[in-house]
Amino acid sequence: MSEDMPQLFYPGMPERTEPWTGDYEILWSIYIRCNNRQKLRRVHIPALEAIIGQPHGGRGWVIEKENDNPGELRLMATEILAGSYSDAMLLSLLRKLYALRPHWHLTARLNAEHPRGVYIMATYAEKEPSSAAPAVSNIMVELQPDFSCLIDGTTSHRSGSGKAF
User: Residue 160 in contact with residue 152, Cβ under 8 Å?
Assistant: First the structure.
């Protein structure tokens, strides 16, 4: 795989040469076809959590209304995975993804010795989303090292943690 993955790095992140040995995180960005927040909370979120669990640690999803498509809402969450990468992390993520939807586009750097660690990006786009719960139209999921320990701690993907998403 190419060394130039489409991975997002924090501004000013120091260059590393040794293999990454810190914690990992999974970033969830899910677009749901629903224009009613009550229905989202009552129907779609429980259906979604029945499939993938509560990656946000029970603190609630970050929900944004999409300006480009008023019939969609974006759910964001971060699942913190303590410890160095293991194949069990990847297997658990893949089970969740394929339980959610049958077809994914995956991009991955699976070299645990890489200075930026293992990185996996999974994307899914529905051409004609159904209205069945959860009515998912687009998803982007990333498994990546938790680089927040390398910076001042004010920048993080962690939703619901009191830090900026």
Answer: no
